[in-house]
Design brief:
The structure is a single chain. The protein is α/β, with parallel strands linked by helices. The protein has a single domain (about 10-364), classed as Aldolase class I (TIM Barrel), CATH 3.20.20.70. About 45% of the residues lie in helices and about 10% in strands. It has 16 helices and eleven strands. The chain has an eight-stranded parallel beta barrel, surrounded by four helices. It has a two-stranded parallel ribbon with strand order 6-8. Helix 2 packs across helix 9, helix 3 packs parallel to helix 10 (about 255-270) and helix 4 (about 85-95) packs parallel to helix 5. The longest helix has 18 residues, at about 25-45. The termini are far apart. Bound molecules: S-adenosylmethionine and iron/sulfur cluster (SF4).
Length: about 375
């Protein structure tokens, strides 16, 4: 057994060990890591994969993150918000098809009109599904009052990516103002946890000037924060953003993709019982990227339910698949693709994070 292989049998790593795992020197070692992570998932939480039907509710955003195609400052981007009926139609579809859960994602808006509307939609979704659809929210930084309202209305998971756990890098990727403060993002993540949500975070991988040391720190941050779920994926440049300027110093898309797979796999070794998503950005860089992420230990997939007419307007980065609506809605097709990874789609289940329940019990 070589040194790399012997590391794979551990579940607690030093920063140096994580860097070593993220930097295999042979293709065989890379493959062994991914395979091991898939096995660890199967042995700890089983080989179920859970669907979250993704609703990209609105591309209106108050923020101006330097990397994001729907940032406020991108004037080329036309803006939309889905109608109530469109949201409820997506929810009904997900419920009828046995998807189990939804994710509602949007730009960050904190007006009362917006937060009341989300509360209303949550209640309506719960009503039409007899309380059976689980709901994850990804709506940016919000106050405790708002989070409390949304939790009571039926949202029970919430994802806020820290984007990078390194404060200096964070400051490079965001405007230097109160709306884009690292400390405030962290406080917002803590508010999510304090309000009872299953709490998720994540980072972008392959950002300009980011190295494997930073990524090892990200994984240690995720572990220390004791999250229940993670959504992370490659950074992909968008030509309508200030960070496009840095496109020539990025590692190749292939390397970003493979590094993202290793991030998923190492995280699975470090936190065997959390939920990890196979993200859209992984699929953008590889047509079977989601399936590869599942093989590497992910257990959540988010088929896109956003009406096709809006998809071109939710372009966070270049090359985002404006997937054929029918293909994404074809449960049979997606299930067959998932099956090819040696896992099974568990329908009609929320697929909550085992880690969340253990965390709650240990708080008692
Ligand atoms: N506005 C909310 C927020 O920022 O938390 C939720 C929606 S935002 C579009 C969801 C995620 O998209 C962000 O957390 C960020 O990681 C990701 N994202 C934005 N631009 C990206 C890019 N160029 N490449 C990869 N991911 C990107
Ligand atoms: Fe807005 Fe989220 Fe994009 Fe930042 S990442 S600009 S908060 S949608």
């Amino acid at each position: 057994m070589n040194k790399y292989e012997s590391l794979l049998n551990k579940n607690d790593f030093t920063r140096e060990e994580i860097i070593a795992l993220l930097s295999p020197t042979t293709k065989d070692d890379h493959e062994l890591l991914l395979e091991k992570a898939g096995m660890v998932r199967n042995e700890t939480i089983g080989n179920n994969v859970y669907f979250r039907g993704l609703i990209e509710y609105s591309n209106i955003c108050a923020k101006n993150c330097y990397y994001c195609g729907i940032r406020r400052g991108n004037e080329k981007q036309g803006r939309y918000t889905m109608t109530d009926q469109e949201v409820l139609d997506c929810a009904k579809f997900a419920y009828d098809e046995g998807y189990g859960s939804l994710v509602i994602q949007a730009g960050e808006v904190s007006s009362k009109d917006f937060t009341d509307k989300i509360e209303y939609l949550l209640k309506e979704i719960k009503k039409l599904s007899n309380g059976k659809l689980g709901i994850t929210l990804s709506l940016g930084e919000q106050t405790s009052d708002v989070l409390k309202k949304w939790f009571e209305a039926g949202g029970h998971r919430y994802l806020i990516r820290i984007e990078t756990s390194n404060k200096d890098l964070y400051a490079r990727y965001h405007p230097n103002d109160e709306l884009h403060s690292y400390d405030e993002r962290l406080r917002a993540l803590n508010r999510v946890k304090d309000n009872g949500f299953q709490t998720g975070t994540g980072v972008m991988i392959g950002l300009p000037r980011q190295n494997v040391g930073h990524l090892a720190d990200d994984l240690l941050f995720i572990k220390k924060f004791d999250v229940d779920m993670v959504g992370m994926g490659p950074y992909i440049e968008s030509d309508d953003t200030p960070m496009y300027e840095d496109r020539n110093i990025l590692i190749s898309k292939k390397d970003r993709f493979e590094l993202s797979l290793r991030m998923v796999a190492v995280l699975r070794l470090m936190m065997p019982d959390i939920n990890i998503a196979a993200t859209t950005a992984m699929q953008t860089l590889d047509p079977v990227g989601r399936e590869k992420a599942i093989k590497a230990g992910a257990n959540v997939i988010m088929p896109n339910l956003t009406p096709v007419k809006y998809r071109e307007s939710y372009l966070l980065y270049e090359g985002k698949p404006c997937l054929d609506e029918e293909a994404e809605k074809c449960k049979g097709c997606i299930m067959a693709r998932i099956k090819s990874t040696g896992t099974v789609v568990a329908l009609n289940e929320w697929g909550d994070s085992n880690h969340f329940f253990k965390r709650k019990n240990s708080d008692k």
